[in-house]
Sequence to fold (342 residues):
Amino acid sequence: MNEENDNVIHIRFGDGASKIDPPRESEQLLRDDPIETLDDEAPPPSSGDPIASLYTMSEVSRLFDISIGRLRYWDRAGFISPSVIRGARRYYNFQDLVGIRTAKGLIDAGARLSQVKRSLEVLRTTLPKVIRPLNELRIIADGPSVLIRDRGSKYEPLTGQLHLDFEVSGIADEVVKRLRDAPFPADRASAYEYYLEGCRLDEDEASFDRAEAAYRKAIELDPSLANAYTNLGNLEYRRGNIDAARREYERALSIDSEQPEAFYNLGFLALEHGDPESAVDLFRQALASDPGFSDAHFNLALAYEELGRIEDARAHWHEYLSLEPTGAWAEIARRHLGAAGS
Fold:
C-alpha cells in the first residue's frame, strides 16, 4: 500500500493529547496503544493477597464484565479512576474494586449516573482506610439508600437506588476464581514487553516483520492480549492485506467483545470500501463502548453524510467539536457543518 493510504495513528488520552499527522477527510485507523491509554496491560506489582493487590484495567474488565472502553470513559469523566500510581502507570486497588462493583450494581438496577456518582463520593470517604476491615463489610441498597454494614455497626448512608446486596469478601473470592487463572505474572510481564517492542517497531515499514513477530510472541505468552490483535490488523492494512486486517480486528473482538478501537477500524474499512451502512453500525458500536470516542463521532458523521442523513451527521459533527474543539479535524468538522447549513 502506498504512503498516501498509510493512515495509522495512536490513541492518546489525557493532558497534552494530540493526534499526529492531520487527516484527510477519509479518516484514519487507530492503534491500540496502552502507553497512551492507561497501561492497561502492564502487570502490576504482584501480591498473593487479593485485598492487598493492585489491578490493571484489563483485569477489572474481566472481573466485572465491564468493557475497557467504558472503564476508560469512566476514568476520563472523573467517575471512577485508578487511584494508585506506580511510576508512570496507574492501577486500581481493592477499594476501587468495591466502588466499581457498587456502581455496576446500581447502574444495572436502573440508578441514574448522577445518583451513582454521589454514592461513590460518599463511599470513598466512608470505607475504612485500613485493608482488613474491608473484607468484613457488606454493601446493601435499601430503597433509596445504600448502606455499608460490618458485623456490628452501620456506616453513613449513601444516595443510591434499588437492589444491591453483596459481601465485599465476595469480590476477593471472584478475584481468585476469575483472575488467578490468567497467565503467570512472569508470562504477562514478558508478553507486555514483547507488545511494547511491537509498538516501537510498527512505525517503520522496514521493521513490520519484526513488529509482527513481537506481537505474535506477546499473544503466545498472553492469549488475552486483544490489543496485539488490533495492532496486527493495522500492520496487515498497511501492507495492503485488507481481508487479513479485518480478521485480526475480529480476533480482537472475540477476546474483548466491546473493544472500541477494533469496532472503529472495522468501520473505517467498511467506509473506505463503499459500505457506509455497515460503517454506521460499527462506529455506533464503538461509541456504545466509549461514548467519548471523538474519532468515532467524526467518522460516523462522514458515514451518515454518505447515506444522505444530514441531520444525523450534524449531531455527530457537533459532538466531535464538543470533544475536540481545536485542530485540523475540528476545522474539517466545521466545514461540513457549514456546508450542511447552507
About this structure: The CA atoms of residues 137 and 153 lie 10 Å apart. The radius of gyration is 22 Å. Confidence is low (pLDDT under 50) at residues 1-27, 34-40, 130-136, 151-163. The chain has two domains: 3-38+225-341, 57-179.
